[in-house]
Amino acid sequence: MDGIRKITPYIPGAQPDFEDMIKLNTNENAYPPSPKVLEALEKADYRQLMRYPSLTNHELKEALAETYGLQTDQLIIGNGSDEILAFCFLAFFNSRKPVLFPGMTYGFYKVWADLFHVPYQEIPLQSDTFEIVPTDYFKENGGIIIANPNAPTGIELSKNDIRRILAENPDVVVVIDEAYCDYGDESVVDLIAEYHNLVVTHTFSKSRSLAGIRLGYAMGNAKLINVLEAVKSSFNPYSVDKLAEVVGTAAVEDQSYYQEKNALICQTRDRFSEELAKLGFQTLPSKTNFVLTTHPQADAADLFRYLESRHIFVRYFKSPAVLENYLRISIGTESEMATVIQVIQTYLQDIL
């Protein structure tokens, strides 16, 4: 029939439901939310659910503004960072010039570009290291979006390299998607004061253990955030519900809890990578809560199915072709990752 949109959707990781499973396929946090989140939920007045939620999310913005040294008008809150990133495509990428993003990165970028009819160009990564090459973004474009650290590689671009990209592109908006920045070396939020064209997005789904809430936010200069607010109000002004704001505020106010848990995840990640190396795996240097790994003598698809048969769920990408023999494995608890190593070791003994 005429007038029907044809779109290839983003395909998220599976959501299996087994009591005995080890779920390492969607980069969720290995640990539960802060106890202060539970306290906030217990104190929440359910009677207020008869009313629409806040249009301004002022309480949560205040907590975030204090955390990052910003003003509240430099923040926008959304229903997950996915919603915020979609708003960025609608708000900032409206020229006939292509938006630039890495050829291997978060798969939603290409989906949004297609959905909103935004021209784009995928910039190849360095072929031997899977790194982003900053100078590849020193050319005419209609905007730039980069996940940093990148997914699914886990590799982090330095703040100095991002500064170079910002300086070379003063007339377009550069969006830095920092979904995993709390597992890396540094954020670029402090560059907002220096670069008027920078927007940084964060999520509560990873380092704050709240993937089930759907909460995210963007930070930038007030003029850019105001444009995002206008897009949000044209789409769904009530996208952040009352409970999400309560929970999010409690999480932001307990930074020490999350810093402790995320440091533990990084330690587990590094130990897991070392154990994989002992088994012959080649693992990219990750600054996230996952690793991308390959074994020269093992078929990734076969190992994926083997792990799945034992209720260990990881992520296998059939495309791009360069990833066809890689697995992306989220980092769970110490005991979970020890089990994964044991199961992989058994698999290798059977095939080698």
Automatic annotation (TrEMBL):
Pathway: Amino-acid biosynthesis; L-histidine biosynthesis; L-histidine from 5-phospho-alpha-D-ribose 1-diphosphate: step 7/9. This is Histidinol-phosphate aminotransferase. Belongs to the class-II pyridoxal-phosphate-dependent aminotransferase family. Histidinol-phosphate aminotransferase subfamily. The modification N6-(pyridoxal phosphate)lysine is found at residue 206. It comes from Vagococcus acidifermentans. It catalyses: L-histidinol phosphate + 2-oxoglutarate = 3-(imidazol-4-yl)-2-oxopropyl phosphate + L-glutamate. GO terms for molecular function: histidinol-phosphate transaminase activity; pyridoxal phosphate binding. Its EC number is 2.6.1.9. Homodimer.
